[in-house]
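Students often ask why we bother encoding 3D structure as a string. The short answer is that it lets us treat folding as translation between two languages. Here is a chain of 83 residues written in the first language.
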Amino acid sequence: MCRSIVRRSAPQEFTQHARNSTRTCDRRQSHVFAPAYGSPFVRNWTRRRYARIEDFRNFVKLAYMATSLHHSGGTSASRSTCR
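And here it is in the second language, the structure alphabet:
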């Protein structure tokens, strides 16, 4: 039910404004990919632990370098690009 309400009420197009106006994008029926706020846990092959600020900084760097993401999120928005 919630999904159908969002689909009916969400705009089909919008403008994503960047701080640098040359990077402002018009989004028409396309997807914007961005990472989530941050994970409370970090996991390696052997264990899971609570995330630390250094982990968050590393995730921000990874998101910045990923070509498949349009921007690096709200709390760490460091760039926005049109692709």
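Translate back mentally: The radius of gyration is 16 Å. Keep this in mind for the problem set.
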